[in-house]
Amino acid sequence: MRRPLLAISIVSIVALVASCDEPALQVPSDAGSPVFGLTADQSARVLAKVGDRVITLGDFGRTLERMDQFDRLRYQTKERRRELLSEIIDAELLALEARRRGLEKDSAVEDAIRQILREAMIAQARRGLPAPADIPASEVRAYYEANADKFIEPERRRVAAIVVGDKALGEKVLKEAQKAGSNSAWGELFLKHSLTAPKDKSAAPPLDLAGELGIVGPPGDQRGAHPRVPEPVREAAFRIGSVGAVGEQLVEADGRFFVVRLSGLTGGHRRELAEAERSIRVALLQQKMQDQERALEDELRKKFPVEINEAALSSVKLPEQLVQPGSAAQPDPAKPRTPQPEQAGDAAAPSSNAGK
To answer: More exposed terminus of the chain, fewer Cβ within 10 Å: N or C?
Structure first.
């Protein structure tokens, strides 16, 4: 029977000490918090010295602990454990030389260190948070009832189109498509006329999928937009009465003309609590994490005085290439993202024969 990974890792770490050619040195028991179930004395045992810096069994264990569980499996042999220790030593050598050269005072290095310390503080603050499964059911239900509109899934429609560059041709194809009574007839028209049809007919999609553009929600629903479906085409799709039907009018968009067909439909519905529970628990945990982070920041602002030079801030000028008109606004990294429950309906593909 295979031993648990944790037990294997502890045996591997302790075995490294036994495999060293010299007796292990001893250092005070404050050499770091125990890891992988090692005692304080075991964690404090010295594996190597690099200059004045000692590398302990605890250091070695923490390196393993930070790894993916499958990566740890690589270090079960004496040779592999020595390789890992050699890599740790190399890292220490580079760090010592970097300090000797004063690189820790480089602004980029200082920024990286601040970011690492920030993440360590936040990780420490989050240790007391519950797992999603441990959030009380009453809290989950309260969120569900207070955010009822987030769990209403609007109707979704799958859109296909024959795209042409000439209006007269588009009107002709529109009349033919409206008379076509089958998927195959639509597919043949697509292959014959559409600018989006593959030149190599052997690479053509099945006729019932010809001209597929994507799934969209009602006009005005931001979640229901699709990059391949222009807004006028989306609006036309929601004016079509039944699956398999073609729109009454030719649609002009992006300098081209679209014969629009409704190829699938999924009706709107309200997600029940049982269906939404998992995503609500994740959203609640994200909210708790954000609240805890804000509380920590507020506490630190009280502990350490903060002064802002508003005059200097207002005088900052950004390079022109960063503020070009019409460029997409970049998200503010300091502004926490409002947690939202997963929108399971967004990924659901409508049935090609639904609504018939």
So the answer is: N
Q: Within 13 A of 263's CA, how many CA atoms are on the CB side?
A: 24
Q: How many CB atoms lie within 10 A of CB 161?
A: 30
Distance, in Å, from the CA atom of 18 to the CA atom of 39, rounded to the nearest integer, reads: 16
b/e map 222-235, b = 16+ CB within 10 Å: eebeeeebbeebbb
Torsion-angle region of 32 (φ positive above 0: left; ψ -120 to 50: alpha; else: beta)? left
CA distance 353 to 356: 6
Give dist(CA 44, CA 57) in Å, integer: 6
- Evaluate the CA torsion angle 122, 125, 128, 134 in order and state its sign: negative
Closest CA to 289 of 143, 122, 139: 122
What are the DSSP calls for 143-161, one per residue?
HHHHTGGGGEEPPEEEEEE
Q: Is 204 helix (H, G, I), strand (E, B) or coil?
A: coil
SS (H, E, C) 321-352: HHCCCCCCCCCCCCCCCCCCCCCHHHHCCCEC
Closest CA to 286 of 344, 336, 345: 336
Determine the pLDDT at residue 61. 87
Neighbours of 192 (CB within 10 A): 11
Q: Which of 3-17, 152-166, 227-241, 304-318 has the lowest mean pLDDT?
A: 3-17
Between CA 356 and CA 342 the distance in angstroms is: 29
Beta bridge partners, 162, equal: 259
Residue keyed to tokens 């490294």: 16
B/e letters for 108-140, b = 16+ CB within 10 Å, e = fewer, are eeeeeeeeeeeeeeeeeeeeeeeebeebeeeeb
